[in-house]
Write a structure and sequence with these properties.
The chain is mainly beta and about 475 residues long. About 5% of the residues lie in helices and about 40% in strands. It contains four helices and 30 strands.
């Protein structure tokens, strides 16, 4: 756990956005963003104190187009000793214009969230984040349509510029990805959505440019030039990864409900590589609720923080870093903690080798795949208890891990002949570590066809079960 909500300074200080951090000359800090902002600092990332102080409260200004009702100060950037700049997600609600109408006012039904429009604004701190002042409105909807009002009771008519990403510098420019949702002013139908890329040479400029596909730039404070294919990419974080020698973008895929990532070479003209899911995220349990496994977008699990990153703004990662996330679930909406998880850049065999190096006496292993054999299909792989010269038991589950919806199928032994490469990973000599599991019984049950398979290896010393690498990546084949 990084932050415990029991020590919050007020009920409104909750992690309601991606957790971002910065360094000063003497401290490392993270923001706990909501429309009341908390901040927690320490002498290093691992020494931050558990108490977050309240450093900003939104003014509830109902005026349009001020966009100063609720502000989420979300993307801090250290500029100079004591001085910080930040981008903010600033919400305004059209129902504020109807405060005397009992059917249209914000307190009626879902009028507030359903009449939501949004801007990207700029804030400044001259005391290392202990207080903040509004500097500018950078992007906002130019006008609001009364056509939207009758639609509030049925659906959310949100539109505008949302959820600024972290600020990262390349060359002379500072960049940040933000989300844009445009709507037809007459029909309220979404006309455009996706990520747009903002940049500026001067953090304190009243307007930023938008980078448009092809690398050109325009200044358009009222409309978004979105990057095609990014409508489902939610609140990205970008770092320059020194192991990949590329920019690494992590985001929540709103169409998949998973943390996804891609890479690219330049912010000036980003050309994204393939989008992939972050491996093993489906096993991360929310500690307050053992049944909550994996993430939803409200966990905001996309922050990349490498405590060893050079500079002040966590703009760099290498082959191992942290991602932070909120414990949000519907049952604990206002009582959210902040947790961290370890992330490593590895492939399948490198992962097994990394497990062996980092946990010298732990269970490691790998599922190689499903192979045809004697008229059926078999699941093959290997597992061992590192450095122990003994074959170990395995269990097979289908449809989920043990304890998270998985159904126990069978037990066996990893006691088949093993090639030298696996023996090297297991640090043994002449011991059998391979397994082969017949899938015939599962293939005969239609309810299990297409369901993922999970293999556990058991410790020689403690008997504890460990889920081995590539579990969940192979499914029960049809007959």
């Amino acid at each position: 756990m990084v932050w415990d909500n029991r020590y919050r300074p007020s009920s409104l200080v909750i992690p309601d956005f991606v957790i971002r951090g910065f360094k000063t000359e003497s401290e490392t800090c993270i923001l706990i963003p909501h429309y009341e902002l908390g901040m927690m600092c320490g002498s290093s990332f691992h020494a931050m104190q558990g108490v977050a102080g309240a450093v900003y409260r939104s003014p509830d200004n109902p005026a349009f187009p001020a966009y100063d009702y609720h502000n989420w100060i979300a993307s801090p950037y250290f500029v100079a000793p004591g001085k910080l700049f930040a981008l903010a997600h600033s919400e305004w609600y059209q129902c504020l214009q109807h405060s005397t109408d009992p059917t249209k006012r914000c307190s009626t039904g879902s009028n507030q969230v359903n009449s939501w429009s949004n801007a990207i604004t700029a804030f400044f701190s001259s005391d290392s984040g202990r207080s903040w002042s509004r500097q500018a409105t950078l992007q906002r909807p130019e006008k609001i349509s009364d056509t939207f009002v009758p639609l509030w009771p049925q659906s959310m008519i949100h539109h505008g510029f949302f959820e600024p990403g972290n600020i990262i510098k390349e060359g002379d420019y500072y960049y940040s990805f933000v989300t844009y949702v445009g709507r037809d002013m007459n029909t309220a139908v979404v006309s455009k959505c996706g990520l747009m890329l903002m940049r500026t040479k001067d953090l304190f400029a009243k307007q930023w440019e938008q980078v448009i596909p092809g690398g050109m730039s325009v200044i358009d404070p009222y409309n978004g030039n979105v990057i095609p294919g990014t409508c489902s990419w939610n609140i990205p974080t970008v770092t320059y990864n020194t192991s990949l020698c590329k920019y690494l973008m992590t985001f929540t895929g709103t169409s998949t409900g998973k943390i996804q990532y891609t890479t690219f070479d330049s912010l000036a003209n980003p050309q994204f590589g393939p989008v992939r899911d972050l491996e093993n995220q489906q096993y991360i349990a929310i500690p307050e609720n053992d049944q909550a496994v994996g993430f939803n977008k409200m966990n905001y699990p996309t922050t990349q923080i490498d405590p060893d990153s050079k500079g002040y703004n966590f703009e760099y990662t290498d082959d191992a870093f942290y991602m932070l996330f909120s414990s949000f679930r519907q049952a604990n909406g206002m009582s959210r903690n902040v947790y961290r998880m370890d992330v490593a850049l590895v492939d399948a065999m490198e992962l097994a080798n990394s497990q062996a190096q980092q946990n010298r006496k732990g269970v490691i292993g790998n599922i190689d795949g499903i192979f045809p054999e004697l008229g059926t299909q078999t699941l093959k792989g290997w597992t061992c208890d590192h450095t122990f010269a003994k074959s170990i038991p395995v269990n097979l589950y289908v449809a989920g891990p043990s304890g998270y919806g998985g159904v126990y199928v069978t037990a066996g032994m990893a006691n088949l002949e093993t090639e030298p490469g696996v023996s090297t990973l297991c640090a043994t000599n002449g011991v059998k570590h391979r397994f082969s599991i017949d899938l015939t019984s599962l293939m005969r049950q239609p309810a299990y066809v297409g369901k993922p398979l999970y293999v556990y290896g058991f410790s020689t010393t403690t008997g504890a079960a460990t889920l081995i690498n590539r579990s969940g990546q192979f499914v029960v084949p049809g007959r």
